[in-house]
């Protein structure tokens, strides 16, 4: 402890240097912490939208790559260049593209959501859409006789004030009421595409198939052309199989999301070229992107939550 004396020889006990230092630190610490929280909140809020955009862009590339690797493009779909993500929920379970499903799991009509990723006049909150579920059979099956129509709804509107928007399929015009996948025993893993197409104001439904037509074979691309429908703006697919396969399905490959950086051009928006993917299996392989996509969403919401918390503390 330090002792100090004045000119009159009057002495007193003074504060040790470290006591003064500690007092100073405690004096300014609350202000410093508050400033730190405010800075952290600003940074988190600034970075979160970028992280979200990056993640959804990679998810979009993943969907394009999955359609290519499942050999859904260029046949039966010549061009697949979605600009939005399609959310598909059966009951309370959100499904990942390409994942095998049971007949019972996909029996009810699914709920669909639409999340725009890139700027496109085809995807707006006030837009009108056509929704379809198409069975493209097992990988390698001939498409000469067309595909099986399991669901077709015209005049579908989006609801909600912000994305993801809910697609109100119940308010549309049913050409074919939803009928869940039910492939024949032993016919392999059928690929069921869920597609959302832009429906322009000039749209005119063809005479056939008429409203309330049953599940049946038809040429999907011929229908799109004759109806004057726009681009496929979003899509997903599932596989359903019953029994042991007796068909010779072509091999497919899964998607490596490590190669799907936003800057990468390996999986471009257009899927009109040759079929992509190396042969590594004997049936449609589930995508490997679901874990990465889910973790990305966790990071995004974690950052947003942290930003809100830090902002609240700072204020």
Strand content: 15-25%
Helix content: 25-40%
CATH architecture: Alpha-Beta Complex
CATH homology-level superfamily = PEBP-like
CATH topology: Phosphatidylethanolamine-binding Protein
Please give the radius of gyration in angstroms: 28 Å
Sheet/helix structural class: alpha+beta
Give a quick account of the main beta sheet: strands, pairing sense, barrel closure.
Answer: 11 strands, mixed
Mean pLDDT: 81
The CATH top-level class label: Alpha Beta
Cα-to-Cα separation, first versus last residue: 40 Å
H-E order: EEHEEEEEEEEEEHEH
> Which residues sit in consecutive blocks of at least 5 with pLDDT less than 50?
43-48, 264-285, 287-301
**Morphology:** elongated
- Secondary structure tally: strands: 13
Number of helices: 3
Number of domains: 1
Short description:
With 315 residues, this protein is an alpha+beta fold.
Describe what you observe in this structure:
This protein is α+β, with helices and mostly antiparallel strands and 315 residues long. The chain has one domain: Alpha-Beta Complex (Phosphatidylethanolamine-binding Protein), CATH 3.90.280. The protein has three helices and 13 strands, in the order ββαββββββββββαβα. The strands form two sheets. Strands 3, 4, 5, 6, 7, 8, 9, 10, 11, 12 and 13 form an eleven-stranded mixed sheet that branches. Helix 1 packs antiparallel against helix 3. The radius of gyration is 28 Å and the shape is elongated. The two termini are 40 Å apart.
Features:
315 residues, alpha+beta, Phosphatidylethanolamine-binding Protein, eleven-stranded mixed β-sheet, two-stranded antiparallel sheet, 3 helices, 27% helix, elongated
